[in-house]
């Protein structure tokens, strides 16, 4: 079994630049993952959230705690306005975050580990209170007290063509359980997150990704992270 060093301990399932979006908003996740110990007071990653419409929207969100360590506390912050997240909370229990049209704000994901090791993946679904079909879903994984990434071949996933100039296809039964596909540069910068459809065949569009070598990180239930080298050519 191969182990790979993961520079940071939080991987966000969000699109790079304008790719991850609902009808009215876009998330550009700026921070690469960072390693965190269980003794730290808080782990955090930060991105930029933008309302691309001309109207004011009132944002609510839902959370999925299925793969969150019980001792880990999760928070979401729009700028300095933070929400503590609970497994059994309802979106309507929170005041919405109001964003004027064509505006942006920092979006932060935070984990307070309270001394507990383990990998936590929380899934957020953001939506417009007045138009619930206008949604955006992303996942954030915190690797607390561990920094190893395993080789994707352990999942018995077939990848090809690799190198590719347009589409790379992943095939394997284990893909049904995947909860995030994140593409990183060799420097550890998040380049793109691809949609998760829980199919045994996943097509990754790399047609607009610059030539180079990348690391595709697959996050599985329980927060296990697997690495697959990807080469893009032109």
CATH topology of the largest domain: Immunoglobulin-like
For the biggest sheet, the summary is: 6 strands, mixed
Binned, the helix content reads under 10%
CATH architecture of the largest domain: Sandwich
Q: Could you give the count of β-strands? A: 19
- How large is the share of residues in beta strands? over 45%
Instruction: Count up the helices.
Output: 0
Mean pLDDT, rounded to whole units? 82
Low-confidence region ranges: 1-21
The largest beta-sheet arranges its strands as 1-12-19-18-15-16
Q: How would you spell out the order of helices and strands? A: EEEEEEEEEEEEEEEEEEE
Which structural class is indicated by helix and strand composition? mainly beta
Shape: globular
Distance between termini? 32 Å
Question: Which CATH class of the largest domain?
Answer: Mainly Beta
Domain unit count: 2
User: CATH superfamily name of the largest domain?
Assistant: Immunoglobulins
C-alpha Rg (nearest Å): 17 Å
Indicate the topology.
Blueprint: E1 3-5, E2 10-13, E3 25-29, E4 43-51, E5 57-67, E6 73-78, E7 81-85, E8 97-99, E9 103-112, E10 118-128, E11 131-144, E12 148-151, E13 158-160, E14 167-171, E15 180-185, E16 190-194, E17 201-205, E18 212-219, E19 225-232
Parallel strand pairs: 12-19
Antiparallel strand pairs: 1-12, 2-11, 3-4, 4-9, 5-8, 5-10, 6-7, 6-9, 10-11, 13-14, 14-17, 15-16, 15-18, 18-19
Give structural notes:
The protein is an all-beta fold and 234 residues long. The protein is 0% helix and 53% strand. It contains no helices and 19 strands. The radius of gyration is 17 Å and the shape is globular.
